[in-house]
Amino acid sequence: MAAAKRALNVPVYLHRDDLFIYERAIEMGRMFGLAVEPQPPIDRFYTQGETIRFGSCTTTVHHTPGHCPGGVCLQIGEGQEPGKDLFVGDTLFAGSIGRTDLPGGDYATLIASIRTVLFAFGDDARVYPGHGPATTIGEERRSNPFLQAS
Fold first, then answer.
1. Contact at 8 Å (CB) between 123 and 141?
2. What is the DSSP string of 38-62?
3. CA pair distance 89, 70, nearest whole angstrom
4. Which bin fits 23, alpha (ψ -120 to 50), beta or left (φ > 0)?
5. pTM of the predicted structure, to 2 decimals
6. pLDDT of residue 1
């Protein structure tokens, strides 16, 4: 995070519920064998439903806890339109979901976030995970084994 802030000169955003993780980044990195430098201060905390504008885009913040308590998904649109592009981090993947076995993770909360927040965007919404291929809400609703009705 610190290297990205230095290189890009951009603000650091975080949901307040993830501050305890952010403040322990060095220790968490060590758990995975990574050397992590001290993190820069948070410039701004996300709030549910807030709108952030950059260039010609509008971003709306949606709180999606589960993978971590402060998980957020960013809905991106052009101009004033809310958009159908969802940047979901580790909340949802093509054919899978985010881990819930790390500090603050909770499986039931993650599934509820996906079903109540992400599914509400409709089947044609495009999903861009933090890693792996893009997908759509419709594809995940139909085929993701973690999201099949029980």
1. yes
2. PPPPPSEEE-TT-EEEETTEEEEEE
3. 11
4. alpha
5. 0.91
6. 81
